[in-house]
Amino acid sequence: MQATAFAHPNIALVKYWGKRDRDLNLPAAGSFSATLGPMRTRTTVRWGVPTDRLVLDGTERDAAATARVSRWLDLVRAHRPGLGGAEVVSDNDFPTAAGLASSASAFAALALASTRAAGLELPDDALSVLARRGSGSAARSLFGGFVEMRPGERADGTDAFAVRCQAAEHWQLQVIIALTARGAKKVSSTVGMNHTEATSPYFRAWVETVAPAIVAAREAVEARDFARLAAVAEASALQMHASAIGADPGVLYWRGATVDVIHAVRRLRDDEGIPAFFTIDAGPHVKVFTLPIHAATVRERIIAVDGVHDTLEATIGGDARIVEAE
Ligand code: DP6
């Protein structure tokens, strides 16, 4: 009745921003991501306790935080009645302030650990559907390497899941995360995307960019074509943010240093011929992709940007996995 799983965070190269169904958490369009390593979430689930409990990074969480997880655990209980309550103990080995979506690795690890602890052996797509119900980006964190999220068409969402396009070994890229602000972000991804969809005149135009961008990103990764991937990823990030900035009132995640890092990355590429591109999620930090041999130079240029107080480094990570079951 107990299992422990590891899952890595991921960064979208073609962004997910908007839902076609909020109750089932169905995305309005697909997305395409790179899974990161070595940072990970580790989650242990034990079924058969009187009530659900949630312990994150060593601290027992309150009723509100536990309620979100309890609602999600109900989906597993629906697969196997009689499981009772679950004790969920989870920790991240990367700082929350890293600007990495910890909900992605959290719900991926939870999906794997909780189903295994319940004695369920779900196929990959069903597991990805379950993780998606917790957080859209979590559907992708079950798989290593380069991953495509399929938006699906069915109303019940059974065809909205992620698939691995290329394993991590296919292309080892280096990611440098430029931290441009301290403290938690003010507008969560969920709130930001729902508000964009409800009020931005650019939301529909944004959604139309996604499908062709995914085809281009998939092909670029397959061919290890860095310049093409750079163009697709930067365009997708800027188009997503343009749709959010166009909401009413506008959702603006950037700080001054965010923009300065964008310029620094473009200078590296245009003036020095160094392969590098940026992407930005629902926060002020900038994630810069490069090839391992250029990582030291890229880091040096990024940390020199005014307002960048630290950097973190990552590589391309592997599949989520069970580390122990009993
Ligand atoms: C900007 O997966 O956090 O990081 O499904 O509402 O939990 P919910 O949203 P979430 O959104 C991630 C948004 C993003 C882009 C991406 O990861 O694709």
Features:
single chain, 326 residues, 37% helix, globular, binds ligand DP6
**Which regions contain 5 or more consecutive residues with pLDDT less than 50?**
none
Integer average pLDDT? 96
Number of strands: 16
Proportion in helices: 25-40%
The distinct bound ligands, ions and cofactors come out as:
ligand DP6
Q: Give the overall shape.
A: globular
Order of helices and strands: EEEEEEEEHEHHEEEHHHHEEHEE
Number of helices: 8
Describe the sheet with the most strands: 8 strands, antiparallel
| Content-based structural category | alpha+beta
- Assembly type of the chains comes to single chain
Binned strand content: 25-35%
What is the distance, rounded to the nearest whole angstrom, between the alpha carbons of the first and last residues?
A: 7 Å
What is the alpha-carbon Rg in Å?
A: 19 Å
